[in-house]
Amino acid sequence: MAGDTPEINTATDIEAKSGDKSVRLRTYRLVDLAVGYLMVVTAVLFWIVVEHKIDTKEASAANIQQRKEAANIISAAIKEQASAMKDQTKALQFQACLFATSPERREKEYMSENSFCRQITK
């Protein structure tokens, strides 16, 4: 019987028996399989991290560009609004000055380019 089955080294072999059938694995093969599996898993995780980093970088750059464009639009709108308010203030000052003048001088003040009311509203 000793010639029918090879010897089992209990330090490096694992044997599972079920009835008349048996399976024997050498532990160094298991280690090789485990290391191979871990290498594949590590490579996949590394690839996922690198792809995520690249995607995040591109999305961040696009987000920054959109924010800059939005800031420029808002800045232009604020400048336009400030200019309109300045013009409106000048018109109100001119109108107040005209109302403060006598009715006889009001038409002359309104028509003249160098009138007192126009000079104080510049």
Helices and strands in order, then pairings?
Blueprint: E1 13-18, E2 21-26, H1 27-100, H2 103-111, H3 116-120
Antiparallel strand pairs: 1-2
Write up what this structure looks like:
- The structure is a single chain.
- This protein is mainly α.
- The chain has one domain (13-120).
- The chain has 3 helices and 2 strands, in the order E-E-H-H-H.
- It has helices at 27-100, 103-111, 116-120, and strands spanning 13-18, 21-26.
- The chain has a two-stranded antiparallel sheet.
- A hairpin with a 2-residue loop joins strand 1 and strand 2.
- The model has no long low-confidence stretch (mean pLDDT 83).
Key traits:
122 residues; mainly alpha; two-stranded antiparallel sheet; 3 helices; 72% helix; rod-shaped
Name the shape in a single word.
Answer: rod-shaped
- Low-confidence runs: none
* Terminal Cα span: 119 Å
Cα gyration radius (Å): 45 Å
Count of DSSP E strands?
A: 2
Q: What helical percentage do the residues reach?
A: over 70%
Tally of distinct domains = 1
Whole-number average pLDDT? 83
Main beta sheet: strand number and arrangement? 2 strands, antiparallel
How many individual helices? 3
Query: Would you tell me the structural class of the helices and strands?
Result: mainly alpha
